[in-house]
Each structure stands twice: as structure tokens, then as C-alpha cells.
Amino acid sequence: MRSGSYRIVSNSTVQQGAGAMPFRSPAARENDRMWWLAHGEHEVPPSLGWLSLHERKHLASIRFTKRRNEYLTRRWTAKQAIATVLEIDRTPASLTRIEVRHRPSGAPYVHLDGRAAEIDVSLSDRAGWAVCLVGPPGSAESGTLGIDLEVVEPRSDEFVADFFTSAELEHVQGLTDLDRRHEAANLIWSAKEAALKVQQVGLRVDTRTVEVQLRGERRPDGWAPMHVTGAAGPMPGWWRRDGVFVLTIASDAQREPPELLTTGSSLAGAVPVHSWVGRPTC
Ligand SMILES: CC(C)(COP(=O)(O)OP(=O)(O)OC[C@H]1O[C@@H](n2cnc3c(N)ncnc32)[C@H](O)[C@@H]1OP(=O)(O)O)[C@@H](O)C(=O)NCCC(=O)NCCS
């Protein structure tokens, strides 16, 4: 399939077998498709030949190792995902053609060969791992996607009371199993961040202006439905737990879960890393 002047990925680069798109509705439209993948910071090549000039300039302005690692991991992950979806080869020279730039709000958009590409994108990283959500085609102007990655870790009662709505607070406090409680707290937080990315406002607004509802059973492919409501309207989405990570995606319309691209790494066995601790500045 083509969108504008770009070719869009065929199913051969989407993970097949157990858990691969078993629930894809025949009615799902091609332009509703989304894709995702993950990469770890250890996979980012040390040479910077895959960055554009603009990106290298930005990198040179970063003084803190944590921020540098996060930026590189997000960019590497995004370029791998976008190149796969647009069927561009993934040599360093070709990857320089792809840039993820920012709107004034901070929301990302894809630049390809010097102009905005008709494809939507959202990025997140946590503890040495980054994720990228791509699609649907033809939505460069809209910024309709949000993705967020978190580690399942303890969140204090104060955190939940400060940032969650009363219904969310009640849901978390109603869970007696500690792991399920931590999972729910991180999941709801992550879903809020994903939704606030759809709204393109991020944490500039009160996190209680969006409310997360966890709906329905987890599917065999690992995705479970969720629903976020906010001032801008409903933001349906999906969440999954992979090892110690929880991943959420939200968008402006009801869609099937994103398809996993084969060019990424598995989050299921991923170990969180904080490699910057020993060398905080670049
Ligand atoms: C969006 C936000 C919540 C994400 O924060 P985070 O959890 O630390 O970071 P994540 O790794 O999950 O996501 C980072 C990505 O979010 C995206 N993002 C940033 N601002 C965004 C916005 N307004 N809308 C949608 N996406 C946004 C970017 O793609 C960014 O990665 P990039 O800079 O490499 O392109 C946060 O950046 C934010 O609140 N931004 C708005 C407020 C702001 O700009 N503050 C300035 C810094 S104090």
C-alpha cells in the first residue's frame, strides 16, 4: 500500500506466529494501522553516521549523559521503526534521511528528505529502553498518537493521591496484591502520559484532567484495552506488560493494537539500565 509518495510496510516485516495480529478485524481500514518496536541503548551504534546534521548539532548541545543516552536511544528506535514502516533501507546513510523533529508544543513529527512525511509518530523511553509507535499513514498534520513506557516500581500513596482522579485512586487502593497495585499505579500514570501526548500538551496540564479506565480482558497477543477521557474527547488505547515494563498507547480513534515490527528487540526480557550514573556529564 502507498500513502502519498511513501510505500508502507507489508506484513512480512510484522511479527507473525503466536500473538501476531490474531484479532485483526476484516473491517479494519488500512489507514488505521499502527506499528511499534523497542530498542535498548546498548544497540545504538557508537558511530553517529546515522544522525542528520541537525540531530548531530542538537546532540552536541546536550551536557548530561542521561539526556544524551535517552536522545540517542529514542532517535535510533524511531528511525528503525519509521524506516521499516516506509520500507527504506536501514543503512546509516539512509537513516540520515529520516528525522523526528518537534512542533512548538514538543510533539514529534517525521521529516523525510527535508519535508514533513505523511505518517504519525510518538516516542518514549525509560531506563535504557525506548519505544516508538508509528502510523497511521496520512496524518502528518494531526499528531494523533501517544506512547509511554514505564518500569513497574513502587509508587507512593502520596503520588497516587496527588496525580490520580478519585476513581483511579479507588481502583489502585482496591488492589490488595502489591504487585498488581504497583502495576496499576504505573499503568495509569503511563496511560495519562500517552493521552497527554495525544493532546500534545504533556505534563503542562493537571494529570487529573484525563481519566483512565481499564476495560476488558488481556488478549493472547498481550494487549489489553483501556480508555482515556479528557477535555479533547475520548482517547482509546491499549496496554501491555512485558517483563518489568508496562507500555501504553493512546490515540484519537478506536483502532486495533499496533503490530510489532520484526526489526526491534523484545521488551519481555529487557533489563532496566541506568548507565549514566557513573558518568553524569558528557
Ligand atoms: C511529553 C512529556 C510528558 C514526556 O516526558 P517523559 O516522560 O520525560 O519522556 P518520554 O520519554 O515518555 O517522551 C519523550 C518524548 O515525548 C514527546 N513529546 C514531548 N513533548 C510532547 C508533547 N507536547 N506532545 C506530544 N509528545 C511530546 C517527544 O517526542 C519526546 O521525545 P523527543 O524529544 O526525543 O522527540 C514531557 O516531555 C512534557 O510534559 N512535555 C511538555 C512540557 C515541557 O515541554 N516541559 C519542558 C521540560 S521541563
User: What percent of residues are in strands?
Assistant: 25-35%
**Small-molecule components bound:** coenzyme A
Structural class: alpha+beta
What is the makeup of the main sheet? Answer: 5 strands, antiparallel
Overall average pLDDT? 88
Low-confidence stretches: 1-5, 16-29
List the helices and strands in order. EEEHHHEEEEEEHHHEEEEE
The total of beta strands comes to 14
C-alpha termini separation: 43 Å
CATH class wording of the largest domain: Alpha Beta
Q: How many whole angstroms does the radius of gyration measure?
A: 18 Å
Strand order of the biggest β-sheet: 9-13-12-11-10
* CATH level-4 homologous superfamily of the largest domain: 4'-phosphopantetheinyl transferase domain
How many structural units, i.e. domains? 2
Q: Compute the number of helices.
A: 6
Q: What is the name of the CATH architecture of the largest domain?
A: Alpha-Beta Complex
CATH topology of the largest domain: Ribosomal Protein L22, Chain A
